[in-house]
Design brief:
This protein is of the alpha+beta class and about 90 residues long. The protein is built from 2 helices and 7 strands, in the order E-E-H-H-E-E-E-E-E. It has one domain: Ubiquitin-like (UB roll) (Roll). About 20% of the residues lie in helices and about 30% in strands. A hairpin with a 2-residue loop joins strand 5 and strand 6. It is globular and about 25 Å long. The N and C termini lie far apart (about 40 Å).
Length: about 90
């Protein structure tokens, strides 16, 4: 299982949780299993089979450069990082 850290703006969809344990060996599997556990999460993270613009996913602090195919080790940490707007 991986520990997935949920950003504040997405916590309402995750039942208010700031982190959840989810099964998956790739980011794609993690996203699919997040959707099963917390319907609506996938739409926040993925569009047209790719990570949404304005969202970054990282595994153990390493940003995904291969999109949803990035491997997630057992016991790994997945960070969801929405873009920060400002000026």
């Amino acid at each position: 299982m991986a520990m997935v850290f949920i950003p504040a703006l997405m916590r309402p969809v995750a039942g208010g949780k700031d982190r959840v344990e989810i099964e998956g060996r790739t980011l794609r599997e993690i996203v699919e299993n997040l959707e099963k556990a917390y319907p609506g999460m996938k739409a926040l993270l993925v569009a047209d089979g790719q990570i949404q613009d304005g969202i970054a996913l990282a595994v153990n602090g390493e940003p995904s450069e291969v999109g949803l195919m990035m491997e997630v080790p057992d016991g790994g940490e997945v960070q969801i990082m929405p873009a920060i707007a400002g000026g």
